[in-house]
Amino acid sequence: PLKAKIVLLPGDGIGPEIVAQAQRVLEAVASRFGHEFEFSSHLIGGIAIDTCGDPLPDETVAACKESSAILLGAVGGPKWDDPSAKTRPEAGLLKIRKELGLFANLRPIRLFDQLIDASPLKREIIEGTDILFFRELTGGIYFGESGREGSGDTESAYQKMIYSVPEVQRIVRLAAKAARNRENRLTSVDKANVLEPSRLWRSVAAKVMADEFPDVEYDVVLVDSMAMHLINRPKDFDVVVTGNMFGDILTDEASMLPGSLGMLPSASLGDGGPGLYEPIHGSAPDIAGKGIANPLATILASAMLLRHSLGLGEEAELIETAVESVLADGHRTADLARGGASIGTEAMGDAVMKHLAN
Ligand code: NAD
Ligand code: IPM
Ligand code: MN
After folding, report:
1. Which residues are listed as membrane-spanning (predicted)?
2. pLDDT tens digits, one per residue of 277-307
């Protein structure tokens, strides 16, 4: 039996609705295996701006640093979209990733057989797809110096894209190690035909692969072309490593392989310390408060939390198997139903819970 402190950061929009379901699932797993999980909930995002004027209060950072792992819902929404506001909910998420040194964002694109017909793509194209993205998460254009110059009709804005040798080395090494435990293939995605940081990325990645991973099959694809290959021949990819912004965009695109953004979990990891787990989707303002959001991405993120931060592989598999069973039983939230019959967020949580009972 294990004792662990788990920090919950529900955030905005559908965040609190989906995190509540994942918490139930974690509690069920704890009681079944005799673990003690101590949960505490803290502010991040828009709700933190409303409550204390800061999208990432110090108190939240302190709680995260003392925890074993963190489960986050989502941040942001139209309420905080004013372009002249001095801060935004998203700044809180970027800051916690940076503060905790979470440079590696793992985004598995895993198909559920039961959902193949929920995908807008053809069965013969997607069947057998299994991709693991490594998105660099604490560098690149997201964290480059930004600003504005001039004003009025001639005003301009800039944001620098910077990558350093060690930043590229560490993410490529992690991705290549993961490839060894899978199909031993790694694809690096960049825009080296245009961008200087991509040219650095490409040469550093090539050297790491040649010097340290000569046994791993390695290739390089330009990001625009990758956007096309992903939906044309997704089965050809095993592990994919890329920079912060390209990884953000390509994984939302890749969510259409399993059929819904509501199915994709992620893990953000650094060098030791607590990991942060979240669905890849956002706060879904269009459906927030309606009780219809799909909680499965967050529930699958909680499985990743058990596996990667707590070393509880068997417990993680139990959750993943429960999700498969629920889908096999025919349960669908609206995003998966494609116009057919659907159930709400809590009912989906109930269905998963049924498969976790002793
Ligand atoms: P979004 O991911 O919130 O939603 C895109 C579409 O997918 C919407 O139609 C939404 O209803 C649907 N969707 C997303 N998750 C779903 C779920 N679990 N179940 C059913 N449907 C789901 O993207 P957006 O609308 O572009 O962004 C909304 C806000 O979320 C923005 O403020 C953005 O900055 C923020 N955001 C936050 C995160 C995060 O916290 N990690 C990630 C992405 C976007
Ligand atoms: C994600 C989100 C975030 C990102 C935003 C909300 C900062 O889109 O987690 O994918 O771009 O990283
Ligand atoms: Mn995103």
Report:
1. none
2. 999 999 999 999 999 999 999 999 999 999 9
117 is catalytic: no
Active site residue 142: yes
329/42 Cα distance (integer angstroms):
35
Regarding whether 141 and 100 lie in a shared domain, the answer is: no
Question: 350 is in which domain, residue-wise?
Answer: 1-106+269-358
- To the nearest 10 degrees (0 to 180), the angle between helices 296-308 and 345-354 is 50
Does some domain include residue 190? yes
Residue nearest to atom 27 of ligand 1 (CA): 282
The CATH number of whichever domain residue 143 belongs to comes to 3.40.718.10
Q: Which region holds residue 189: left if phi is over 0, alpha if psi is between -120 and 50, else beta? A: beta
- Please indicate, yes or no, if residue 238 is contained in any of the structural domains: yes
CA 354 to ligand 3 center in whole angstroms: 31
Catalytic residue, chosen from 50, 54, 130, 252, is: 252
Query: For residue 357, what pLDDT band results from cuts at 50, 70 and 90?
Result: confident
Written as one string, the DSSP assignment of 62-98 is HHHHTSSEEEEEE---GGG--TT-S--HHHHHHHHHH
